[in-house]
Amino acid sequence: MLSRRGYSQELAEKARRENFPVASRLLPRRHRDHLMAVYGFARSVDDVGDEAHPDDRPRLLDAYEADLVRLYDGREPLLRPVRALARTVRECSIPAEPFHHLIEANRRDQSVTRYETFDDLLGYCSYAANPVGRLVLHVFGEVSGLRLALSDRVCSALQVIELCQDVGEDHRRGRVYLPEEDLRRAGCPPGHLAAATTSPPLRAVVAVQAARAAKLLGEGEAIVASLSGFARTAVAGYVAGGHATLAALAGGGYDVLGRAVRPRRPRLVAAWARVLMTTRSPDAALQRLSSA
């Protein structure tokens, strides 16, 4: 078992591999600690759902579920990622539901391996990604109906972008997140996802998902304008990570099998500055969402 310091170092290394700054040093220590606690829980649950022996995953996910109940009942959690949440949950008044939804997303990963339509995929994102954005808003004390709606758009976009990057890795795990109807329409049989290089039909399907993610990101980006201070800085960084990764996907011709697609830091920093300077009115964004 890793020591507390070893766990923190391992978690920080995983955070550095994300598309966006999980807990930027531009933020005060208290915010960074809370964000890392939330990330540590989400990352640990994902690791169980992806990397534990398949026979062990249901039992381990049950253990996380039971430990969350223990935490919210005021008892001492047994698992380190849940124990690390205790101060964050208390100081930020975070409800249990988003954490339970993250566990449910990983339960679904054990039984649902294909998605017929993009809407079906967004249904998965509502459990796998959107709760994280809601948790971030709780960390900063910036929860509102408008912000939740915009945050869900951003988080779904970030999840779709990551799924585009990880097509090969997910296929090796027995999962295909690219919508089946899009694969059929493009003439992209399952064998294309197991190839060493990305075929033109598969690139076309990835490009379609990237365009959809860009639309979601554009709709949700106005959340930054609704925030101020450190919350604005942090959320702008997440949005910027999405833009920078979309640019990396496009720049690589949507080749997601032959190379690792990751945003370069200068591109991320430039996108971060742009988002902070140019975000649109959140009220206008809400009107567009209401009429959609």
Automatic annotation (TrEMBL):
SUPFAM superfamilies on file: Terpenoid synthases (SSF48576)
Source taxon at top rank: Bacteria
Gene name in the database record: crtB3
Name the UniProt record assigns to this protein: All-trans-phytoene synthase
Native source species: Nonomuraea coxensis DSM 45129
CDD domains named among the record's database cross-references: Trans_IPPS_HH
Pfam families found in the cross-reference section: SQS_PSY
Lineage: Bacteria, Bacillati, Actinomycetota, Actinomycetes, Streptosporangiales
